[in-house]
Amino acid sequence: MEKPRRTQLYDLHRQTAKMTIFAGFEMPIWYKGIIPEHLAVRNSVGIFDVSHMGRVIITGVDSESFLNYVITNDVSRLSPNSAQYSVMCNEKGGIIDDFVVYRLEAEKFLVVFNAGNREKDYEWLLKNSNNFEVKIENVSDDVAMFAVQGPNAEKTLQKISTTNLSNIQRFKCGNTRLTDVEAFVSRTGYTGEDGFEVFVWDAPLAKPDNAVKVWKAVLDAGKPFGIEQCGLGARDTLRLEAGLCLYGNDIDETTTPLEARLRFVVKFQKPNFIGKEALLKQKEEGIKRKRVGILMTEKGIPRQGFKIYSEENEEIGYLTSGTFSPLLKRGIGMGYIKTEQAQEGNTVKVEIRGKLVKAEIVSFPFYNPEKYGYKRKTAMSEQ
């Protein structure tokens, strides 16, 4: 059996965290506990180590046209220091991965992959780059990456940043120094909250000093706000409350972006991209299933693989993710059901331990966006 990989912060994590194996990495699943970590992010600020994710730099005169060929979104719309969410599809329109693309310069891009797809995605890019003048550099093990998330994320990071972070709007990014360490920050995340993802450029696995220094500095800066170190457990409950997909659960190579309600990242007006033909055909014919939010109206926690039934007890789909929502204090989940049954407000039933338990189809996010998440009414500066 292959030895688990470790991030630059492994020695720090193991002192205080409960560890688990995820995507081949030994990672913290929690420190204090999933619920306190989750609520810290919703109400104030938390920090996650996401260095296990894959990072590649793509440069060259054809970097834009190459990316536009392999992904569904349109990177020509990105100005330098901007980012966008996208997916990469196979010829059948199935999702190879979902990720964020950052335009660093006119001919320089950063792509951040899901941890479980690091090798697969890198190989796919190499395989499809033959007709393009590009250089694809895998920097996954040389760059540390943290997520600082929550309504007090900006105030926390600002204390140690040389850049005015209020100038970096959502899905914008830029270089900065954090406690005299060269870094790159983007106003992105996987929690539904406002926040930043931090890249520490010079932090190879063999010499993690810069990564450790920045992590500790963020923790010190966040102390007045009650910052919590957060593990993968809270990362999962937060993204699920926000209605965000987890690759391998909610999307995979048998799922298309149209079925997954990710139509907004598919730009059909582009001349050509891998999977375009299959997706156009599906768009014209209509999708047979659709990703939906499931909110339990009776007691029960939905889990991956549980079956979904109509009010008339007809099997109409299945859960791909499910959990107990620390915010709503109810069971929530997402899954795929027949398109004709996918109207919001419809009553459905989830089979839990042999019993059919009532639930409702709801929109994403599960929480009230006026009270929580990056769209919350209370401005960051007023908190």
Strand content: 25-35%
Low-confidence stretches: 379-383
The strand count comes to 19
Q: What shape does the CA trace take?
A: globular
Give the oligomeric state.
single chain
Mean pLDDT metric: 97
Known CATH architecture of the largest domain: 2-Layer Sandwich
Superfamily (CATH H level) name of the largest domain? Probable tRNA modification gtpase trme, domain 1
Which fold does the CATH topology of the largest domain refer to?
Gyrase A, domain 2
What is the helix fraction of residues, given as a range? 10-25%
Q: Which sequence of SSEs, written as H and E, runs from N to C? A: HEEHEEHEEEHEEHEEEHEHHEEEEEE
Number of domains: 3
Calculate the terminal CA-CA distance, rounded to whole Å: 49 Å
- Output the structural class: alpha+beta
Work out the helix count: 8
Q: Tell me about the largest β-sheet.
A: 6 strands, mixed
CATH class of the largest domain: Alpha Beta
Q: Rg, please?
A: 21 Å
Strand arrangement, major sheet: 10-11-12-9-3-13
If you had to describe this structure to a student in words, what would you say it looks like?
- By secondary structure, this protein is α+β, with helices and mostly antiparallel strands.
- It folds into 3 domains: 10-51 and 141-240, Probable tRNA modification gtpase trme, domain 1 (Gyrase A, domain 2, 2-Layer Sandwich); 55-138, Alpha-Beta Plaits (2-Layer Sandwich), CATH 3.30.70; 288-383, Elongation Factor Tu (Ef-tu), domain 3.
- Helix content is 20%, strand content 32%.
- The strands form 4 sheets. It has a 6-stranded mixed β-sheet with strand order 10-11-12-9-3-13. Strands 14-17-16-15-18-19 form a 6-stranded antiparallel barrel.
- Strand 6 (95-105) and strand 7 form a beta hairpin.
- Helix 2 (34-43) crosses helix 7.
- The longest helix has 14 residues, at 209-222.
- The protein is globular.
- The chain starts with 9 loop residues before the first helix and ends in a 21-residue tail after the last strand.
- Residues 379-383 have low confidence and may be disordered.
